[in-house]
Fold these 3 entries.
Entry 1:
Amino acid sequence: MKTYNEYITEILSRDYTFNISNNLYTYSFDDNTELRLRFYKMQDRVLGTVYRIDFSLTDTNKNEYFERGSTNKNPITVYDIAFSGIRQFLSTNPSIEYIMFTAEKSEQSRVKFYDRMTKNFNKYIKNFELFDIKESSTDKSYYLEKQ
């Protein structure tokens, strides 16, 4: 069995191959853990084409490398993996102008994750900046624009 560092190094050094179905691009990081990055190509009335990013970790196999929640023993890992996949997707799709994240307010861990992610986005992916946050009674959406 791989050590934690070997596993993370492997994931972060991979070339991502996204499965494309209609307007959905999906990458699964690991066969044993449902660690997925999805991009939904959508049309916005004002912005035009927007890619909605969804990052999920469902550890059905109790993978020792990931533990859920904010007290996670390796909290930066999921964050780093998300940025690695997003960076690679954007670099292979340079025409993308707008991306967004949406979190249901009932999922406070996701809201906090996206708050942190969008606050630091420009440190990891230089040419996108947060330009709008929209909130409804049920969700919070973060819009980033290519600079």
Entry 2:
Amino acid sequence: MSVHPATGPYRQGPADGLRGRAAVLRERAERLRGASAGLDWKGPQADAFRARVEELAARCAVAAEGLALSADQLDGPAGRR
């Protein structure tokens, strides 16, 4: 029997959950950028595609920062890391 982290005895607090999601978004941004850089595709359509992927990666990074800020606010002054 497995224990789901959101409902089991190892449940994280809301701030930790936000930090975890922020980390996932940061990783996703890095993976998007890496995959885009590794494409062996040339031409104007490739450049446009890479620009769109970079926009998406940037949005992931901005969202991650917002989640991290929210986590810090949830912790309050005493719990900030």
Entry 3:
Amino acid sequence: MYFLPYILVFFFLVFIVLFAPITVKDKSIHTNINKDLIVLQFLLLFFLWIYFVCFREYVYIDWVSYKRLFDSVRPFSEIEGYWKVNTNQWERGYYVFCCLVKQFTDNYLVFQVINGLIDAFCIFLLFKQYYSNRYFCLAVCFFYIFNGLPIEFNLLRNSKAIFIFLFSLKYLGEKKYLKYLLLNIAATQLHNSAIIYIFITPFLLFNWTTKRVILFLFVVGNFLYLLQIDLFTIVVQCIQGFLPSSLQSVVPLFFRYKNDAAYGLKIGYIERLFTFFIIYKYKPNILRLKNGRILLNSYYIYYFNYLFFAPLVTICERIGVLFSFSYWILYPYIYSQLKSKDKKYLFWGIFIIYGALKLYVANNSETFQYRNILTL
């Protein structure tokens, strides 16, 4: 029953979303009532976040490494300087962040609370850029289901880098490329994987996701996936002999975590296939959304990553986490475009069933046992 706390939180999140007022009436009495309900909704969401995320104990796996680092760092006032400090192979920005928090507390659990509050503030600012109160909590629901848990519990460095990238999209959309670049260089100081955001910038901006290109990649990708043809391995093996000796020694590292069991008609494949058709159908609507082109291209990077790199589990999952934000933003917007009540009922039915099943599969082992410092 290790999965139970995660599913209960999901159901409570759904309750908070459905509790939201559908419209704000023109009459003042109804407006006041709805404003009170909106405030109550945000308070419920905030206290749920504080309890479940901030006041968790030692949950998931990576806390071991993060706690060891936090216990070993010195307070900020004792370090020589940002560029002089010995980070022991940790990203410099995250290391100094730990030193800064260490200035005020030696307790790792307090560090987790501070970290959770910072992430909550970032999520609030991010989703408020795209949604009114009506769909804000729905976006949090999708964050929770699509990699929100590992991002908050396991990927303390990645989370900050991802949020910085998402804030930088404002400048990318405004063609202020220098500010976008500087923010993402700063993000690499928190986690090295943020360098990917810089390299894929052309794929975010340009209109490469035309109907013909997308359908071609969709057919080829699913063909390779369903027939379990590892195109990446084939290409690497063909060119390996032409690579410099320094690169040839790196090639085996790509295949260390290769897992052909990633193929198959699993629930993840079915969900991604379903989402592809939904996104494809609502593409014209999505392009009207703020940064719609960038978000749409981000989703396609996310989707085709799983088709073409499926057996390279580590690479596939890491890239997937970096671009899962497309779910958080696009799905609430698609829901806002549904006019029929029947479609909305179907949406909620599928989402609740899939969300509960996904949480059950992902958290049903002792490794993911949830503990909370308030209930010890």
